[in-house]
Amino acid sequence: MTPDFDAIVVGAGFAGIRTLYLLRENGFNVRGIERYNGLGGVWHANSYPGARCDSPQPFYQIQDEKLASGWTFSERFPEYSEIREYFKYVDSQWFVSKDFDFETTVVQASFTEDSLWSVSLSDGRRLTARWFIPAVGIASLQSFPEIKGIDQFQGEMFHTGSWPISGVPLKDKRVAIIGTGASGAQMIARIAPEVKSLTVYQRTPVVVIPVSPEPEKGSNPHLSSLTPEGSRAAFERSPKSFSGLDFSFKDPESVAIGSPLRDIQNENLYKQGSLGLIWGNFSDVFANREANEQLYLSWAKSAGAKIRDPIKRSILVPSKLSYPIGVKRACFVDNYYESFNRPNVDVVDIRKEKLTEITKEGIQSGSTHREFDIIVFATGFQSLSAGITKLNITGKNGLRLTDAWKDRISSYLGLSVPGFPNMFYLFGPQGPTVKVNVPTTVECQAQWILSTLKGLRESKIDCCEATPSAAQGWVNRLTQRWNDSLYAKADVWEARSSSNQSEPLWIEGIQKYNEIIRQCRAPEFRGFVKLQPKPAARL
Protein backbone atom coordinates (compact mmCIF):
# COMPACT_ATOMS: atom_id res chain seq x y z
CA MET A 1 0.00 0.00 0.00
CA THR A 2 1.35 3.41 -0.97
CA PRO A 3 0.88 6.03 1.78
CA ASP A 4 -0.55 9.49 1.19
CA PHE A 5 2.60 11.04 2.62
CA ASP A 6 6.05 10.03 3.68
CA ALA A 7 5.57 11.78 7.03
CA ILE A 8 2.88 13.55 9.02
CA VAL A 9 4.07 16.19 11.49
CA VAL A 10 1.75 17.33 14.29
CA GLY A 11 2.33 20.86 15.58
CA ALA A 12 3.42 24.14 14.01
CA GLY A 13 5.71 25.53 16.67
CA PHE A 14 9.51 25.60 16.50
CA ALA A 15 9.72 21.79 16.35
CA GLY A 16 7.01 21.16 13.78
CA ILE A 17 8.10 23.94 11.43
CA ARG A 18 11.78 23.02 11.51
CA THR A 19 11.16 19.29 11.04
CA LEU A 20 8.65 19.73 8.22
CA TYR A 21 10.96 22.13 6.40
CA LEU A 22 14.04 19.91 6.68
CA LEU A 23 12.17 16.84 5.47
CA ARG A 24 10.47 18.69 2.63
CA GLU A 25 13.75 20.18 1.43
CA ASN A 26 15.26 16.70 1.34
CA GLY A 27 12.63 15.22 -0.92
CA PHE A 28 10.12 13.87 1.57
CA ASN A 29 6.42 14.38 0.99
CA VAL A 30 5.26 15.86 4.30
CA ARG A 31 1.98 17.12 5.72
CA GLY A 32 1.57 19.15 8.90
CA ILE A 33 -1.41 19.25 11.25
CA GLU A 34 -2.01 22.23 13.55
CA ARG A 35 -4.93 22.93 15.89
CA TYR A 36 -4.51 26.71 15.83
CA ASN A 37 -5.17 28.88 12.78
CA GLY A 38 -1.55 29.85 12.23
CA LEU A 39 2.11 29.15 12.94
CA GLY A 40 3.87 29.60 16.25
CA GLY A 41 2.67 26.87 18.60
CA VAL A 42 2.44 28.26 22.14
CA TRP A 43 3.34 31.70 20.76
CA HIS A 44 0.18 31.64 18.69
CA ALA A 45 -1.78 31.32 21.95
CA ASN A 46 0.41 33.32 24.34
CA SER A 47 -0.85 36.89 24.24
CA TYR A 48 -1.46 37.69 27.90
CA PRO A 49 -0.11 41.03 29.14
CA GLY A 50 3.64 40.78 29.74
CA ALA A 51 4.17 37.58 27.72
CA ARG A 52 7.73 37.35 26.41
CA CYS A 53 10.39 34.68 25.96
CA ASP A 54 12.82 34.10 28.81
CA SER A 55 15.68 32.74 26.70
CA PRO A 56 17.77 35.49 25.12
CA GLN A 57 18.27 36.34 21.49
CA PRO A 58 19.98 35.56 19.24
CA PHE A 59 19.56 31.99 20.58
CA TYR A 60 15.77 31.83 20.80
CA GLN A 61 14.99 31.39 17.11
CA ILE A 62 15.12 28.65 14.49
CA GLN A 63 18.82 27.93 14.16
CA ASP A 64 19.21 28.36 10.43
CA GLU A 65 21.86 30.84 9.23
CA LYS A 66 20.17 31.79 5.97
CA LEU A 67 16.87 32.38 7.72
CA ALA A 68 18.54 34.48 10.42
CA SER A 69 20.29 36.67 7.84
CA GLY A 70 17.03 38.42 7.03
CA TRP A 71 15.67 38.99 10.51
CA THR A 72 16.92 40.88 13.57
CA PHE A 73 15.08 40.99 16.87
CA SER A 74 14.74 44.40 18.50
CA GLU A 75 15.60 43.20 22.01
CA ARG A 76 17.14 40.25 23.81
CA PHE A 77 13.85 39.06 25.30
CA PRO A 78 11.18 40.00 22.76
CA GLU A 79 7.51 40.12 23.61
CA TYR A 80 5.00 37.71 22.11
CA SER A 81 3.94 40.18 19.41
CA GLU A 82 7.45 40.33 17.95
CA ILE A 83 7.80 36.54 18.11
CA ARG A 84 4.55 36.23 16.16
CA GLU A 85 5.93 38.59 13.54
CA TYR A 86 9.03 36.41 13.41
CA PHE A 87 6.94 33.34 12.56
CA LYS A 88 5.27 35.33 9.78
CA TYR A 89 8.74 36.14 8.48
CA VAL A 90 9.67 32.43 8.62
CA ASP A 91 6.63 31.62 6.51
CA SER A 92 7.53 34.32 3.99
CA GLN A 93 10.89 32.60 3.48
CA TRP A 94 10.01 28.92 3.81
CA PHE A 95 6.35 28.87 2.69
CA VAL A 96 5.49 26.21 5.26
CA SER A 97 1.86 27.27 5.76
CA LYS A 98 0.92 25.65 2.47
CA ASP A 99 1.97 22.29 3.91
CA PHE A 100 -0.11 22.58 7.10
CA ASP A 101 -3.77 21.91 7.73
CA PHE A 102 -4.75 24.54 10.31
CA GLU A 103 -7.61 24.44 12.79
CA THR A 104 -7.37 20.66 12.57
CA THR A 105 -6.68 18.15 15.32
CA VAL A 106 -5.61 14.53 15.39
CA VAL A 107 -8.45 12.34 16.63
CA GLN A 108 -6.53 9.08 16.44
CA ALA A 109 -3.24 7.76 15.07
CA SER A 110 -2.76 4.02 14.58
CA PHE A 111 0.04 1.83 13.25
CA THR A 112 -1.43 -0.57 10.68
CA GLU A 113 -0.60 -4.07 9.47
CA ASP A 114 0.84 -2.45 6.34
CA SER A 115 3.47 -0.76 8.52
CA LEU A 116 1.88 2.65 7.93
CA TRP A 117 0.44 5.26 10.25
CA SER A 118 -3.26 5.93 9.78
CA VAL A 119 -4.15 9.37 11.13
CA SER A 120 -7.80 10.35 11.62
CA LEU A 121 -8.49 14.09 11.71
CA SER A 122 -11.19 16.25 13.25
CA ASP A 123 -12.54 17.19 9.81
CA GLY A 124 -13.31 13.54 9.03
CA ARG A 125 -10.34 12.81 6.78
CA ARG A 126 -8.00 9.88 7.27
CA LEU A 127 -4.41 10.24 6.07
CA THR A 128 -1.69 7.62 5.89
CA ALA A 129 2.05 8.08 6.20
CA ARG A 130 5.20 6.06 6.61
CA TRP A 131 6.35 8.10 9.61
CA PHE A 132 4.36 9.83 12.33
CA ILE A 133 6.08 12.78 14.05
CA PRO A 134 4.35 14.45 17.01
CA ALA A 135 5.91 17.85 17.65
CA VAL A 136 3.46 19.10 20.25
CA GLY A 137 5.95 19.90 23.01
CA ILE A 138 5.32 19.80 26.75
CA ALA A 139 3.16 22.93 27.13
CA SER A 140 0.20 22.29 24.88
CA LEU A 141 -2.67 21.50 27.27
CA GLN A 142 -3.67 24.01 29.93
CA SER A 143 -4.08 22.97 33.55
CA PHE A 144 -7.00 24.17 35.65
CA PRO A 145 -7.19 23.61 39.40
CA GLU A 146 -10.13 21.73 40.84
CA ILE A 147 -11.88 24.42 42.88
CA LYS A 148 -15.41 24.26 44.18
CA GLY A 149 -17.77 26.64 42.41
CA ILE A 150 -15.50 27.37 39.47
CA ASP A 151 -18.49 27.45 37.12
CA GLN A 152 -20.61 29.88 39.12
CA PHE A 153 -18.44 33.01 38.96
CA GLN A 154 -20.42 35.79 37.28
CA GLY A 155 -17.43 37.88 36.28
CA GLU A 156 -14.89 37.01 33.58
CA MET A 157 -12.41 34.13 33.82
CA PHE A 158 -9.36 33.53 31.65
CA HIS A 159 -6.34 31.23 31.46
CA THR A 160 -3.05 32.87 30.50
CA GLY A 161 -2.50 30.06 27.99
CA SER A 162 -5.57 31.08 25.96
CA TRP A 163 -5.71 34.83 26.43
CA PRO A 164 -7.91 36.55 23.82
CA ILE A 165 -5.73 38.00 21.06
CA SER A 166 -8.02 41.04 21.02
CA GLY A 167 -7.07 41.73 24.62
CA VAL A 168 -9.08 42.17 27.81
CA PRO A 169 -9.88 45.60 29.31
CA LEU A 170 -8.24 45.62 32.75
CA LYS A 171 -8.15 49.29 33.68
CA ASP A 172 -9.90 49.97 36.99
CA LYS A 173 -10.85 46.28 37.34
CA ARG A 174 -10.58 44.15 40.47
CA VAL A 175 -8.37 41.28 39.32
CA ALA A 176 -7.32 37.99 40.92
CA ILE A 177 -4.42 35.95 39.58
CA ILE A 178 -4.15 32.34 40.73
CA GLY A 179 -0.61 31.05 40.27
CA THR A 180 2.86 32.58 40.25
CA GLY A 181 4.68 30.63 37.58
CA ALA A 182 6.16 32.32 34.51
CA SER A 183 2.90 33.62 33.05
CA GLY A 184 1.62 34.77 36.43
CA ALA A 185 4.81 36.62 37.30
CA GLN A 186 4.98 38.33 33.91
CA MET A 187 1.35 39.38 34.04
CA ILE A 188 1.53 40.66 37.62
CA ALA A 189 4.37 43.02 36.79
CA ARG A 190 2.64 44.29 33.66
CA ILE A 191 -0.91 44.94 34.91
CA ALA A 192 -0.22 46.13 38.48
CA PRO A 193 -0.10 49.83 37.52
CA GLU A 194 -3.42 49.84 35.64
CA VAL A 195 -5.86 47.69 37.60
CA LYS A 196 -7.98 48.95 40.49
CA SER A 197 -6.81 46.08 42.66
CA LEU A 198 -4.73 42.95 42.12
CA THR A 199 -4.79 39.99 44.49
CA VAL A 200 -2.29 37.21 43.86
CA TYR A 201 -3.04 33.73 45.18
CA GLN A 202 0.29 31.95 45.68
CA ARG A 203 0.79 28.34 46.64
CA THR A 204 4.54 27.99 46.07
CA PRO A 205 6.95 30.94 46.05
CA VAL A 206 8.67 31.46 42.74
CA VAL A 207 12.26 32.54 42.16
CA VAL A 208 12.19 35.68 40.03
CA ILE A 209 15.31 37.21 38.52
CA PRO A 210 15.39 40.54 36.66
CA VAL A 211 15.58 40.39 32.88
CA SER A 212 17.46 43.64 32.37
CA PRO A 213 20.83 44.49 33.86
CA GLU A 214 20.73 47.11 36.57
CA PRO A 215 21.20 50.57 35.00
CA GLU A 216 24.71 51.44 33.93
CA LYS A 217 26.12 54.24 31.88
CA GLY A 218 26.72 53.60 28.21
CA SER A 219 25.04 51.44 25.62
CA ASN A 220 23.64 47.98 26.18
CA PRO A 221 26.47 45.52 25.32
CA HIS A 222 23.99 42.76 24.54
CA LEU A 223 22.44 44.54 21.56
CA SER A 224 25.61 44.03 19.49
CA SER A 225 24.77 40.32 19.27
CA LEU A 226 21.37 41.02 17.69
CA THR A 227 22.74 40.92 14.15
CA PRO A 228 22.96 38.22 11.47
CA GLU A 229 26.62 37.79 12.39
CA GLY A 230 25.69 37.45 16.04
CA SER A 231 23.10 34.82 15.17
CA ARG A 232 25.56 32.76 13.15
CA ALA A 233 28.05 32.81 16.00
CA ALA A 234 25.33 31.86 18.48
CA PHE A 235 24.20 28.91 16.36
CA GLU A 236 27.78 27.65 16.31
CA ARG A 237 28.14 27.84 20.10
CA SER A 238 24.65 26.73 21.05
CA PRO A 239 24.87 22.90 20.67
CA LYS A 240 28.28 22.90 22.37
CA SER A 241 26.99 24.31 25.66
CA PHE A 242 25.03 22.77 28.51
CA SER A 243 21.96 24.95 28.14
CA GLY A 244 22.18 25.88 24.47
CA LEU A 245 22.99 29.42 25.60
CA ASP A 246 26.09 31.40 26.49
CA PHE A 247 26.36 29.99 29.99
CA SER A 248 28.56 27.26 31.38
CA PHE A 249 28.85 25.89 34.88
CA LYS A 250 31.89 26.80 36.95
CA ASP A 251 34.22 24.32 38.61
CA PRO A 252 32.86 23.88 42.16
CA GLU A 253 36.32 23.13 43.51
CA SER A 254 37.55 26.60 42.53
CA VAL A 255 35.64 28.26 45.39
CA ALA A 256 34.68 26.41 48.57
CA ILE A 257 31.05 26.09 49.62
CA GLY A 258 30.30 28.70 52.27
CA SER A 259 33.00 31.05 51.06
CA PRO A 260 32.04 34.75 50.88
CA LEU A 261 33.45 34.68 47.35
CA ARG A 262 30.43 32.62 46.30
CA ASP A 263 28.10 35.23 47.76
CA ILE A 264 29.90 37.96 45.85
CA GLN A 265 29.61 35.99 42.62
CA ASN A 266 25.92 35.30 43.22
CA GLU A 267 25.27 38.98 43.83
CA ASN A 268 27.07 39.93 40.62
CA LEU A 269 25.21 37.30 38.59
CA TYR A 270 21.91 38.56 40.00
CA LYS A 271 22.74 42.12 38.96
CA GLN A 272 23.55 40.91 35.44
CA GLY A 273 20.00 39.59 35.20
CA SER A 274 18.57 36.67 33.28
CA LEU A 275 19.75 33.08 33.38
CA GLY A 276 23.35 33.38 34.51
CA LEU A 277 22.53 33.11 38.21
CA ILE A 278 21.28 29.56 37.64
CA TRP A 279 23.02 28.29 34.50
CA GLY A 280 26.30 30.13 34.97
CA ASN A 281 26.84 29.16 38.59
CA PHE A 282 28.88 26.38 40.18
CA SER A 283 27.76 22.96 39.01
CA ASP A 284 27.35 21.66 42.55
CA VAL A 285 24.30 23.85 43.19
CA PHE A 286 22.18 21.07 41.64
CA ALA A 287 23.81 18.25 43.60
CA ASN A 288 24.90 19.66 46.95
CA ARG A 289 22.23 20.88 49.37
CA GLU A 290 24.62 23.23 51.20
CA ALA A 291 25.76 24.88 47.97
CA ASN A 292 22.15 25.22 46.86
CA GLU A 293 21.10 26.81 50.15
CA GLN A 294 23.94 29.32 49.92
CA LEU A 295 22.77 30.30 46.45
CA TYR A 296 19.19 30.67 47.70
CA LEU A 297 20.18 32.90 50.61
CA SER A 298 22.23 35.10 48.28
CA TRP A 299 19.31 35.43 45.91
CA ALA A 300 16.82 36.01 48.75
CA LYS A 301 18.92 38.85 50.13
CA SER A 302 18.85 40.65 46.77
CA ALA A 303 15.22 39.89 45.92
CA GLY A 304 13.83 40.47 49.40
CA ALA A 305 15.39 43.93 49.56
CA LYS A 306 12.95 45.02 46.85
CA ILE A 307 9.86 44.35 49.03
CA ARG A 308 9.06 46.91 51.75
CA ASP A 309 6.24 45.12 53.58
CA PRO A 310 7.69 42.42 55.89
CA ILE A 311 4.56 40.24 55.67
CA LYS A 312 4.52 40.28 51.88
CA ARG A 313 8.28 39.68 51.90
CA SER A 314 7.91 36.59 54.09
CA ILE A 315 5.35 35.15 51.66
CA LEU A 316 7.15 36.00 48.42
CA VAL A 317 10.75 35.46 49.59
CA PRO A 318 10.65 33.10 52.58
CA SER A 319 13.74 32.51 54.69
CA LYS A 320 13.79 28.90 53.49
CA LEU A 321 12.50 27.73 50.12
CA SER A 322 10.32 24.61 49.97
CA TYR A 323 12.38 23.26 47.07
CA PRO A 324 16.01 23.59 45.95
CA ILE A 325 16.56 26.79 44.00
CA GLY A 326 17.03 26.23 40.27
CA VAL A 327 15.35 22.84 39.98
CA LYS A 328 12.10 24.59 39.15
CA ARG A 329 12.55 26.97 36.27
CA ALA A 330 13.13 30.47 37.57
CA CYS A 331 11.11 33.35 36.13
CA PHE A 332 12.79 36.31 34.51
CA VAL A 333 10.72 39.43 35.03
CA ASP A 334 11.55 43.06 35.73
CA ASN A 335 9.70 44.87 38.55
CA TYR A 336 7.98 41.75 39.87
CA TYR A 337 8.74 42.21 43.55
CA GLU A 338 8.47 45.99 43.29
CA SER A 339 4.86 45.53 42.13
CA PHE A 340 3.91 44.30 45.60
CA ASN A 341 4.95 47.66 47.06
CA ARG A 342 1.95 49.21 45.35
CA PRO A 343 -1.05 49.80 47.65
CA ASN A 344 -3.40 48.11 45.15
CA VAL A 345 -1.46 44.82 45.06
CA ASP A 346 -1.71 42.07 47.67
CA VAL A 347 -0.63 38.44 47.97
CA VAL A 348 -2.41 35.53 49.68
CA ASP A 349 -0.47 32.48 50.84
CA ILE A 350 -2.93 29.68 50.08
CA ARG A 351 -0.84 27.14 51.95
CA LYS A 352 -1.97 28.93 55.11
CA GLU A 353 -5.18 30.50 53.85
CA LYS A 354 -6.61 27.69 51.76
CA LEU A 355 -8.51 28.63 48.63
CA THR A 356 -11.77 26.78 49.18
CA GLU A 357 -14.32 28.13 46.72
CA ILE A 358 -15.02 30.41 43.80
CA THR A 359 -18.32 32.16 44.42
CA LYS A 360 -20.59 34.21 42.19
CA GLU A 361 -18.80 37.39 43.25
CA GLY A 362 -15.23 36.27 43.92
CA ILE A 363 -12.99 33.91 45.88
CA GLN A 364 -13.24 32.44 49.36
CA SER A 365 -9.92 31.63 51.03
CA GLY A 366 -9.77 30.77 54.69
CA SER A 367 -12.28 32.99 56.47
CA THR A 368 -11.90 35.81 53.93
CA HIS A 369 -14.08 36.47 50.90
CA ARG A 370 -12.81 38.87 48.24
CA GLU A 371 -14.83 40.19 45.32
CA PHE A 372 -13.41 40.39 41.80
CA ASP A 373 -14.39 41.43 38.30
CA ILE A 374 -11.84 39.14 36.62
CA ILE A 375 -10.16 35.89 37.69
CA VAL A 376 -7.03 34.81 35.82
CA PHE A 377 -5.70 31.26 36.03
CA ALA A 378 -1.93 31.34 35.63
CA THR A 379 -1.82 27.66 36.49
CA GLY A 380 0.37 26.39 33.70
CA PHE A 381 0.04 23.18 31.77
CA GLN A 382 -0.76 19.53 32.27
CA SER A 383 1.90 16.83 32.58
CA LEU A 384 4.78 16.71 30.12
CA SER A 385 3.23 13.69 28.40
CA ALA A 386 -0.31 15.09 28.15
CA GLY A 387 0.15 16.69 24.74
CA ILE A 388 1.35 13.56 22.99
CA THR A 389 -0.97 11.11 24.76
CA LYS A 390 -3.92 13.37 23.87
CA LEU A 391 -3.35 12.33 20.24
CA ASN A 392 -4.82 8.90 21.02
CA ILE A 393 -1.89 6.92 19.59
CA THR A 394 -1.99 3.15 19.07
CA GLY A 395 1.12 1.20 18.08
CA LYS A 396 1.77 -2.44 17.25
CA ASN A 397 -0.67 -5.13 18.33
CA GLY A 398 -3.19 -2.56 19.54
CA LEU A 399 -0.86 -1.13 22.21
CA ARG A 400 -2.08 2.32 23.24
CA LEU A 401 0.52 4.88 24.26
CA THR A 402 -1.55 5.77 27.32
CA ASP A 403 -1.33 2.13 28.41
CA ALA A 404 2.36 1.82 27.57
CA TRP A 405 3.05 4.85 29.78
CA LYS A 406 0.44 4.12 32.42
CA ASP A 407 2.92 3.09 35.11
CA ARG A 408 6.11 4.69 33.84
CA ILE A 409 7.18 6.66 30.81
CA SER A 410 9.65 4.68 28.72
CA SER A 411 11.43 6.01 25.66
CA TYR A 412 14.68 5.73 23.81
CA LEU A 413 16.64 8.99 23.45
CA GLY A 414 13.51 10.96 24.32
CA LEU A 415 12.59 10.46 20.66
CA SER A 416 11.14 6.99 20.17
CA VAL A 417 9.01 4.45 22.06
CA PRO A 418 9.23 0.62 21.85
CA GLY A 419 6.06 -0.78 20.31
CA PHE A 420 5.51 2.33 18.19
CA PRO A 421 7.53 1.84 14.99
CA ASN A 422 8.26 4.81 12.74
CA MET A 423 7.10 7.30 15.36
CA PHE A 424 9.55 9.98 16.45
CA TYR A 425 8.56 12.86 18.71
CA LEU A 426 10.33 16.13 19.51
CA PHE A 427 10.73 18.19 22.69
CA GLY A 428 8.87 15.68 24.77
CA PRO A 429 9.26 13.21 27.65
CA GLN A 430 12.81 12.11 28.55
CA GLY A 431 14.49 14.50 26.12
CA PRO A 432 16.15 17.83 26.97
CA THR A 433 13.24 20.04 28.04
CA VAL A 434 14.41 21.65 31.30
CA LYS A 435 17.23 24.14 31.75
CA VAL A 436 17.75 24.29 27.99
CA ASN A 437 17.01 26.59 25.08
CA VAL A 438 14.03 25.18 23.17
CA PRO A 439 15.23 25.89 19.60
CA THR A 440 18.58 24.22 20.36
CA THR A 441 16.91 21.00 21.46
CA VAL A 442 14.64 21.22 18.41
CA GLU A 443 17.59 21.64 16.05
CA CYS A 444 19.41 18.61 17.49
CA GLN A 445 16.33 16.40 17.31
CA ALA A 446 15.07 17.60 13.92
CA GLN A 447 18.49 17.02 12.35
CA TRP A 448 18.58 13.56 13.93
CA ILE A 449 15.15 12.70 12.51
CA LEU A 450 16.21 13.94 9.07
CA SER A 451 19.41 11.87 9.17
CA THR A 452 17.52 8.79 10.35
CA LEU A 453 14.80 9.00 7.71
CA LYS A 454 17.35 9.61 4.96
CA GLY A 455 19.37 6.63 6.15
CA LEU A 456 16.32 4.39 6.17
CA ARG A 457 15.31 5.60 2.72
CA GLU A 458 18.76 4.98 1.29
CA SER A 459 18.80 1.49 2.83
CA LYS A 460 15.31 0.82 1.47
CA ILE A 461 14.12 0.07 4.99
CA ASP A 462 10.56 1.12 5.67
CA CYS A 463 10.25 0.35 9.34
CA CYS A 464 12.36 0.79 12.45
CA GLU A 465 11.56 0.60 16.13
CA ALA A 466 13.40 1.24 19.38
CA THR A 467 14.19 -1.95 21.26
CA PRO A 468 12.88 -2.45 24.82
CA SER A 469 16.43 -3.01 26.08
CA ALA A 470 17.64 0.27 24.58
CA ALA A 471 14.73 2.11 26.15
CA GLN A 472 15.36 0.50 29.52
CA GLY A 473 18.99 1.55 29.35
CA TRP A 474 17.92 5.12 28.60
CA VAL A 475 15.45 5.18 31.48
CA ASN A 476 18.06 3.72 33.85
CA ARG A 477 20.50 6.46 32.89
CA LEU A 478 17.94 9.21 33.44
CA THR A 479 16.80 7.73 36.74
CA GLN A 480 20.28 7.38 38.17
CA ARG A 481 21.32 10.93 37.38
CA TRP A 482 17.95 12.29 38.49
CA ASN A 483 18.11 10.55 41.85
CA ASP A 484 21.70 11.69 42.40
CA SER A 485 20.64 15.33 41.96
CA LEU A 486 18.51 17.79 43.89
CA TYR A 487 15.86 17.58 41.19
CA ALA A 488 14.50 14.49 42.91
CA LYS A 489 13.82 16.60 46.02
CA ALA A 490 11.23 18.85 44.36
CA ASP A 491 7.79 18.63 42.78
CA VAL A 492 8.74 19.79 39.28
CA TRP A 493 5.68 20.10 37.03
CA GLU A 494 7.60 19.05 33.94
CA ALA A 495 8.41 15.79 35.71
CA ARG A 496 4.82 14.88 36.55
CA SER A 497 3.29 12.10 34.48
CA SER A 498 -0.38 11.76 33.58
CA SER A 499 -0.72 9.52 36.64
CA ASN A 500 0.68 12.41 38.73
CA GLN A 501 3.88 10.66 39.73
CA SER A 502 7.38 12.02 39.33
CA GLU A 503 9.28 11.01 36.18
CA PRO A 504 13.03 11.46 35.70
CA LEU A 505 14.02 14.01 33.08
CA TRP A 506 17.17 14.47 31.03
CA ILE A 507 19.35 16.84 33.08
CA GLU A 508 22.77 16.33 31.44
CA GLY A 509 22.43 19.22 29.04
CA ILE A 510 22.39 19.78 25.30
CA GLN A 511 26.01 18.98 24.44
CA LYS A 512 25.99 15.53 26.03
CA TYR A 513 22.57 14.72 24.56
CA ASN A 514 23.68 15.69 21.07
CA GLU A 515 26.79 13.53 21.37
CA ILE A 516 24.71 10.49 22.31
CA ILE A 517 21.98 10.74 19.68
CA ARG A 518 24.57 11.29 16.94
CA GLN A 519 25.95 7.84 17.77
CA CYS A 520 22.54 6.29 17.10
CA ARG A 521 22.02 7.56 13.55
CA ALA A 522 22.54 5.82 10.23
CA PRO A 523 24.01 3.49 9.27
CA GLU A 524 24.22 1.66 12.62
CA PHE A 525 20.86 2.82 14.07
CA ARG A 526 22.10 1.79 17.48
CA GLY A 527 19.23 0.75 19.75
CA PHE A 528 16.77 0.21 16.90
CA VAL A 529 15.54 -2.90 15.13
CA LYS A 530 15.05 -2.48 11.37
CA LEU A 531 12.51 -4.40 9.34
CA GLN A 532 12.82 -5.04 5.63
CA PRO A 533 9.79 -3.80 3.71
CA LYS A 534 7.21 -5.78 1.88
CA PRO A 535 7.65 -5.29 -1.89
CA ALA A 536 4.44 -3.25 -2.21
CA ALA A 537 5.34 -1.00 0.68
CA ARG A 538 8.56 0.48 -0.67
CA LEU A 539 8.78 4.22 -1.17
TrEMBL record:
Look up and give the organism this protein is from: Penicillium italicum (Blue mold)
- Phylogenetic placement of the source organism: Eukaryota, Fungi, Dikarya, Ascomycota, Pezizomycotina
Q: Which InterPro entries match?
A: FAD-binding_Monooxygenases, FAD/NAD-bd_sf, Flavin_mOase-like
Q: Give a yes or no for keyword Magnesium in this entry.
A: no
Q: Which UniProt keywords apply?
A: FAD, Flavoprotein, Monooxygenase, NADP, Oxidoreductase
Which protein is depicted?
Answer: FAD/NAD(P)-binding domain-containing protein
Which cofactor does the UniProt annotation name?
Answer: FAD
One annotated GO molecular function: flavin adenine dinucleotide binding
Q: Which family does it belong to?
A: Belongs to the FAD-binding monooxygenase family.
Tagged with keyword Mitochondrion:
no
**Domain of life, source organism:** Eukaryota
